[in-house]
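User: Hello, can you help with two protein structures?

Assistant: Certainly.
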Amino acid sequence: GLRLQALQSLASAQPGLTGSQVAAKMGAWLYSVKPRLTELQRMGLVADSERREKNERGRHEVVWQITERGKQWLKSLSG
């Protein structure tokens, strides 16, 4: 579902994306994507890059990046 799409979006975007950027790339509602990023973080598949970028509302957002564990998990799904 959305978690997989969010993870795939981050895998194809280095050095990372904000929640807003992930949502835009997925064509999904931001407030359905942000909780999925938190879940992925708890699973160890994505991490806070410790960078922040301003969004269209002028607020700073976390820039998320896929972890090595996340890359391996995606690779395991593809066979």
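That covers the first. Now for the second protein you mentioned:
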Amino acid sequence: MSDVMVFAENNGEKVHPVSYELLGKGRELADKLEGELSAALLAGEKLPTEELIYRGADKVYYGIDSSLNEPVETNYKEALLDVISRVNPEVILIGATNFGRSLAPRVAMALDTSLTADCTGLDIDEDKNFIQIRPAFSGNILAHIKSRTSPQLATVRYREFPEARRDEGKKGEVIEMDLSLDGDSSGGIEILKEEHGKKVNLEDAEVVVAGGRGLKKEDDFELIEGLASTLEGKVGASRPLVDDGWIDRAHQVGYSGRRVKPRIYFACGISGQSQHLAGMKDSDIIIAINNDPSAPIFEYANYGIVGDLYEVVPELIRQLEEDH
């Protein structure tokens, strides 16, 4: 076994971009292992498969079943296990999205194998061991992990690797799978749908406005929300505010939170500790607002405003609204 398989997550209409990132890294791993790179595309309805070939897959295992119309982990687990049993890959990569983080442990348990979660790096060493790299101890160290079990399963953070380049000249094989699933539409659990407008998707945001320890109380997040709303952006936060229960963990930016790469990142009252910087330092433009001129965030910021965020943020909102 030397093949690498990527689970191509999709929402029924299109493939999640994390799948293209995994194909790029998966291609590199498969080449080092001298094996093939495959993608498992499982859905409730037909989806185009050629893009997965263009992005590096040698084979696409394609299965359609009506029970996969809803994102029910038990059904997807059953379908993915079916593919894995036929392909027998050595390495299986799943995106560390909300769905992937829930699916992967179920697959690992069914396979009686280990799982390394939230990887930020992957490699093959000189002995052709699969090396999984992830932050540990609140992001203060990077752990290099070798699994003793097989197949080796890892979830990988979204926006950690660049998407694989498209090559429309690349040839590959699409293998249609006849999935025989039980068709349990609920998976034995109640499916809770998020209210419209409440979903947090920081990774795809063009603008992120994040608040940190500079905020004095929970209600003051209204300032951050106001600037984010004016810029049609999303609200982020540093870990201490999440730990204090001021805002949901879905808004956390950093090693133990989300990795974001927006066009513009506002760091409001954030000092710039390494744990937070790891989640946002690749933003195109970083604008820091902090009353401490020696704060580490200014070393990474493209633009810095030394001042009280309670004065600066309202003035920014006022001027932005005037311009519109």
